[in-house]
Design brief:
343 residues
Length: 343
């Protein structure tokens, strides 16, 4: 059961943080279909930073001496850089949507098409192959938290809680959860959040009260880009061994489905992320899931075609959206370019 919870969180947390990215953009009035592309770009920049830092010899001494605190700082720095890169990349969508008043759906789709091509182009130049990876070692040996770091031996038996959340865990998971909580409070309990949401519901009314709609939409989309870039790197770190190949397995589009299913509300999105993360976990690790701890891998021995498990997350997405779309209430002004002269 500990393994199931750990794996579910690994898939659910990137979904949650990227779905929250979509909330910030759409609550400001901008449809951010570019979440997939921004994730790809953020993952590439984060992995590139790790690769170049290792190549330059940074943190190698910390790794050799077992200074895991410095290595966690290294990972947090990579998360920050990927967030900054995602924010910068999202400015293309902001400029097209706010300044040029372009169709936001087309703008987001264009970024989704551009990001993989751009990333693969740079990977071919830098690595002369189709995948960029760490210069040395793997993600687990560098960044995963293990119980031996806290003075326990490999054979020590921990309680269920410590075994689940302390051993073979990722600090990035808990950092993303904290960020999600803080940003949810900002969105609903601060003046900035109220102004942001007003620009997505009735921008003309917000403008009449002295709120700069253009700046708020830029802010919402930039925060969205930062979260999506960070989510892309966290995904590549925890599920792809800190590699970048111009693909994030459709997580950006799954995050859009989570956002719609969660009705653009952070708490609902967090719960929906756990549901989708569970099915994604089953699809990826059904051969090693010992649900009851009895040594029986029921899903692997059920005789079901493996492709059925791989299809589960996407089938569930279609079913959820089909039955939930009528109850969804998107921000009223999302996708509508703001023009002061129109009332």
């Amino acid at each position: 059961m500990s393994f199931l919870i750990q794996q579910t969180l690994i898939y659910a947390v990137p979904l949650m943080i990227v779905a929250l990215a979509g909330i910030f953009a759409e609550r400001s009035g901008i449809i951010n279909l570019a979440l997939e592309g921004i994730m790809i770009f953020g993952a590439f920049i984060g992995v590139l930073f790790v690769n170049q830092a290792q190549t330059a010899g940074l943190f190698l001494e910390a790794k050799a001496s077992g200074d895991w605190m410095s290595l966690q700082g290294f990972m947090l720095l990579a998360m920050l850089i990927s967030a900054v890169s995602g924010a910068i990349f999202s400015l293309l969508l902001s400029f097209a949507s706010v300044n040029l008043k372009a169709d936001q759906t087309i703008g987001g789709t264009a970024l989704n098409l551009m990001a993989p091509a751009l990333v693969l182009f740079f990977i071919r130049i830098l690595a002369n192959q189709n995948t960029l990876q760490m210069a040395t070692g793997d993600a687990a040996s560098w960044f995963m938290i293990k119980k031996t770091m806290f003075g326990y031996s490999r054979t020590d038996k921990l309680g269920f809680f410590l075994e689940t959340f302390l051993n073979k865990a990722w600090l990035s998971t808990y950092i993303c959860i904290i960020i999600a909580i803080v940003l949810s409070i900002i969105l609903y309990k601060t003046k900035f959040g109220l102004r942001l949401r007003s620009c997505g519901e009735n921008p003309h009314a917000a403008d009449s009260l002295g709120i700069n709609v253009y700046k708020m939409r830029y802010a919402g989309t930039t925060i969205s880009g930062a979260l999506a870039g960070m989510g892309g790197f966290v995904y590549s770190l925890t599920t792809a061994n800190c590699t970048s190949n111009g693909d994030v397995a459709g997580f950006g589009f799954l995050a859009l489905a989570v956002m719609i299913f969660g009705n653009w509300k952070p708490l609902n999105v967090a719960l929906a992320s756990l549901l989708f993360g569970l099915f994604k976990c089953i699809a990826a690790a059904y051969t090693s899931l010992d649900i009851n701890g009895d040594g029986v891998y029921a899903l692997a021995e059920a005789g079901i075609n493996p492709n059925v498990y791989r299809l589960l997350p996407y089938v569930i997405t279609l079913v959820v959206l089909a039955f939930n779309s009528k109850n969804s209430r998107a921000p009223k002004a999302e996708g509508i370019p703001y023009d002061k002269g129109k009332r």
